Amino acid sequence: MSRVLGVILAGGRATRMGGGDKGMLPLGGQRIIDHVVDRLGPQVGGMALNANGDPARFAGLGLPVLADSLPDWPGPLAGVLAGMDWAAAKGADAVVSAAADTPFLPRDLVAGLQAAAGPSGLALAASRDAEGKLWRHPTFGLWPVALRDDLRAALEGGLRKVVIWTDTHGAGTAEFGAEGFDPFFNVNTPEDLEAAEALAVRA
Ligand SMILES: Nc1nc2c(ncn2[C@@H]2O[C@H](COP(=O)(O)OP(=O)(O)OP(=O)(O)O)[C@@H](O)[C@H]2O)c(=O)[nH]1
């Protein structure tokens, strides 16, 4: 049976929130990242956090903190790569990524991604907007560790856009969410945080 670990992506700059760590903001009596840990944790065989800067600020979470190995804020794929390298060192087959600013992620994320995986073992999550259009969520994926050197080479070559790389490798798409509730609602701005408080009652 394949062994899957989880990486929570918190390596961004949160410019729309005015800086800091979005995941550490309070939501529904916890922090945003506590919701992420509660939902992802039971689905994987262990978790790490991808974050840049001083890891001491996350000490209370009890998770290993993985910094980007590439300079200049290369985007979420750098965090995915850090997670793949960590999972490979742990002897796992794949890592599932989840963004630290997305408190209502699906409780069946890993099973859904595994069921949708393409021939290379890659899959991205997706959900529909109010008009029924399907949107892929590049920070929620299943990433086989066997592809990590390919991803590293692509990033070192300047690739930044997730779906360009995943399309090249025939990633599957796993659809989540129903009845108008988007489990991938993420907190980018102070207004989003207010909206998330209202959603926390339903989620
Ligand atoms: N490791 C890593 N993760 C990143 C980087 N940029 C964004 N992310 C992560 O990718 C996810 C989506 O990020 P965005 O919301 O687009 O970017 P952000 O930096 O969090 O916020 P903005 O600066 O307001 O766009 C979040 O989980 C971020 O932590 C990066 O350069 N490195």
From TrEMBL:
Residues 6-163 form the MobA-like NTP transferase domain. SUPFAM superfamilies: Nucleotide-diphospho-sugar transferases. Pfam families: NTP_transf_3. One of its GO terms (molecular function) is metal ion binding. The keyword Hydrolase does not apply. It is found in: Cytoplasm. Transfers a GMP moiety from GTP to Mo-molybdopterin (Mo-MPT) cofactor (Moco or molybdenum cofactor) to form Mo-molybdopterin guanine dinucleotide (Mo-MGD) cofactor. Belongs to the MobA family. PANTHER family: MOLYBDENUM COFACTOR GUANYLYLTRANSFERASE. NCBIfam families: molyb_mobA (TIGR02665). Monomer. The N-terminal domain determines nucleotide recognition and specific binding, while the C-terminal domain determines the specific binding to the target protein. This is Molybdenum cofactor guanylyltransferase. It comes from Rhabdonatronobacter sediminivivens. The gene is mobA.
